[in-house]
Design a protein that fits this description.
22 strands; 41% helix; 726 residues; Rossmann fold; six-stranded parallel β-sheet; 4 domains; 28 helices; Hypothetical protein af1432; 13% strand; seven-stranded parallel β-sheet
């Protein structure tokens, strides 16, 4: 029988068709080295690839592989069940270098199950695993020639963070190279679906053809379009500069989406960058921006990677690109992006190496939660310092996140793209923001009824529902809430835009939570905003006179409920904002006011910018090389205390629910059902348990006293169908 050592078997095929282990190690070494070369770590990547599957070069593992394929040969006496193989290569590298080998050992030990802790009470910690006895490696292998130095510029105060970051980037190179070579060996059809994407140069040309057509159609005599041209010209000038950190501070309606893309493509072409990544806090903005990018660049250039996007089952290219972000333009969320840089799982980390040598636009950067700010800023710093990334902090309300003696965790050497930010804001100012005092629910409703078209934005779901219920029943009154599933919200937004259209000019009174504030392209002549941070007030103002149709500034009325918000975030934000209502009356959105707000708000919260202690307690101690990757992976941008609920009122949602009963693979159906999901709090879920039944495995049905209403969100029993709790 064939005595070769193999990496993988093929179902129903003889060993002669299997992939030889030597070939797999050679291929993974080459691919990982190419990936790591983007951050000057080619040798490190090559060593990982050559040694990651040494454990498969043992007789017990080869016996297991043959046993799994019902093959009995001379390896059969060595069969011991399913032996581990990852720790064999890790042990070999660590044995020959306490320092460099130790770093690489994390990657090899975790390339299937995830980067481990160095030590803990579990049996899976790396320190304990490296002390165990493993079978002898029978294939040729040699002691690596380790690099003498780490390939990154180090900072003594940040060295622990930098070290664990470097290991995670190497881990990304290894797992993606391993996946890709395994796929090429076992599933050539799937591997072929990873077809090449258009290059940046081609996208650059296509963008400018389409952008010129848009600009030629626009009325360049209007003040708004003239200022948009000014923003664009500033972006093109900045694109010629060296890579690094930039800020793009443009008021809402200033054309920053296309201008930032113009900057990114021009800068990428000049500096040889491989891709453009947009990191956005809200899915409503992602869906809107991704459509703009597809219109400008073509469907084949843009990968949209977030929980509410469902590519067609036949769109394998998109599905595969989401695994490792090898598309030239990626649009994703803050949650997806930052969680991945603290994750220890192969699937989450696989894409990270493709972030190197890219341009990242952090849109609406002010939306990063203050309690997560330091871990996020550390990622942005490190990518720009050592991984060839140009980052653009893009917002209408630039937070005070630059380095200062009062904020030593801030970013250094950030270059503002706009030559004169105050002048731009003055030229594009289309609203007056005034604090009008305390109003109760009924008084707010009465104020709204005095306007044909008006938007009211509040801080909580309950506030939105209370005000909406205080309005008389009318098709002109619309409620928006996160308690409506995404498909329902899209339907409501389409209705709002239709009623606001200059061709229809129908009455339209909208009561909404903050979900409408950022990136939703609506234009109201009047806006009411419950007291919140200045950044939120500015975002609300961006929905007022957005297109400058009114020659005089329109009113944004800021009001306060008589009862104080129970949420500490809203309370602290409101306190910092309230100090500015009088000195900046009518101009709460100007850059000076925004800076003063963030300085005060950050001062109040400087002790909780890393509320989980990820940087201080886990990353900084890693400078010894004893890295607790599993513990670091506790980081979450959002720690949800809610329960996802699928609301199946539409016909296609009900059909998806029914399909679950017969589906062999349920993941695709569950992903599609996300567009019909809402998040409810545990206490709300507890109230429903008396009426829960279970007609389909894994799917709960709520038949009475439902919290969901098709008209107003969580309010009453549904007019038709059932709500399904997953």
């Amino acid at each position: 029988m064939d005595k070769k050592y193999y990496a993988h078997s093929l179902d129903g095929k003889p060993p002669s068709d299997w992939q030889p282990l030597e070939e797999h190690l050679k291929n993974v070494a080459r691919i990982a080295a190419e990936f790591a070369d983007y951050f000057d770590a080619r040798v490190w990547g090559s060593i990982l690839g050559k040694n990651h599957d040494l454990g498969k070069g043992t007789k017990p593992w080869q016996a297991y592989l043959r046993q799994a394929n019902d093959i009995i040969d001379e390896f059969a006496p060595f069969y011991e069940g399913h032996p581990t193989h990852a720790f064999v290569g890790a042990q070999w590298l660590h044995k020959h270098s306490v320092e460099a080998g130790k770093l690489l050992a994390y990657c090899i030990a975790g390339h299937h199950g995830g980067l481990p802790n160095w030590n803990d009470v579990s049996n899976s910690a790396l320190e304990a695993k490296l002390q165990q006895q493993y079978p002898k490696v029978e294939i040729p292998h040699s002691v690596p020639n380790y690099p003498e130095n780490l390939p990154f510029s180090s900072d003594s105060k940040r060295f622990g963070f930098q070290l664990q970051f470097f290991v995670r980037m190497l881990f990304s190179c290894l797992v993606d190279a391993d996946f890709l070579d395994t796929e090429a060996s076992l599933d050539k059809m799937k591997s072929g679906w990873r077809s090449s994407y258009p290059e940046i140069d081609k996208l650059h040309g296509k963008f400018w053809i389409n952008f010129k057509m848009l600009r030629d159609k626009a009325d360049q005599t209007t003040k708004v379009n003239q200022q948009r041209e000014h923003v664009l010209n500033n972006c093109l000038q900045a694109a010629e500069l060296d890579p690094g950190l930039f800020s793009l501070t443009v008021p809402t309606g200033g054309g920053k989406t296309l201008a930032s893309l113009a900057f990114a493509l021009n800068h990428a072409k000049k500096q040889g960058k491989w891709r453009v990544i947009y990191v956005i806090p809200f899915t409503s903005i992602i869906e809107q921006n991704a459509k703009v990018f597809r219109d400008m660049l073509g469907d084949d250039a843009v990968l949209e990677h977030h929980c509410n996007f469902f590519p067609d089952d036949s769109d394998w290219k998109t599905r595969l690109a989401s695994e490792n972000w090898d598309a030239p333009v990626v649009v994703t969320t803050n949650v997806q992006f930052f969680n991945s840089f603290y994750s220890n799982k192969p699937a989450k980390c696989r894409k990270l190496h493709n972030v190197a040598n890219s341009i990242i636009v952090f849109d609406e950067v002010q939306a990063i939660p203050v309690e997560k700010l330091q871990p996020c800023l550390e990622v942005i710093k490190e990518l720009s310092l050592n991984y060839g990334v140009t980052s653009v902090l893009c917002t209408a309300t630039q937070p005070a996140i630059e380095f200062s003696e009062k904020f030593k965790s801030g970013l250094k050497d950030v270059r503002e793209i706009i030559n004169d930010v105050p002048a731009l804001f003055s030229a594009l100012k289309r609203t007056e923001e005034i604090f009008v005092g305390k109003l109760n629910v009924q008084e707010v409703a009465d104020q709204l009824l005095a306007h044909e078209q008006v938007l009211c934005i509040v801080n909580t779901r309950q506030q939105a529902l209370d005000i909406f219920n205080a309005l008389p029943e009318s098709d002109s009154n619309i409620h928006l809430s996160a308690l409506m599933h995404p498909a329902h919200r899209t339907e409501k937004l389409d209705k709002i835009k239709n009623q606001l259209s200059p061709t229809t000019k129908m009455p339209c009174r909208v009561v909404s939570t903050q979900l409408i504030e950022a990136g939703v392209d609506v234009d109201f002549p009047c806006v009411f905003r419950a007291v919140a941070g200045i950044d939120s007030i500015a975002q609300a103002a961006g929905r007022c006179n957005r297109n400058g149709l009114s020659k005089t500034p329109c009113n944004v009325s800021v009001f306060e409920f008589p009862e104080e918000s129970g949420c500490s975030f809203f309370r602290h934000a409101a306190q910092s904002a309230a100090k500015l209502f009088l000195p900046f009356a009518g101009k709460l959105t100007v850059p000076e006011c925004v800076r003063k707000y963030f300085a005060d708000f950050f001062w109040k919260n400087e002790g909780r910018m890393d509320e989980d202690g990820i940087i201080e307690n886990l990353c900084r101690p890693a400078q010894s090389g004893n890295i607790q990757f599993k513990d670091i992976a506790q980081f979450r941008m959002i720690k949800s205390a809610t329960i996802p609920v699928v609301v199946a009122l539409e016909k296609n949602a009900v059909e998806l629910i029914r399909a679950l009963e017969f589906a062999e693979h349920k993941g695709g159906i569950l992903r599609k059902l996300q567009q019909f999901s809402v998040q409810i709090y545990p206490y709300q879920f507890e109230k429903t348990k008396d009426w829960l039944e279970n007609p389909v495995p894994g799917v709960w049905v709520l038949r009475s006293d439902i919290l969901y209403s098709r008209t107003t969100g969580l309010k009453c029993s549904p007019p038709e169908g059932n709500a399904f709790f997953g």
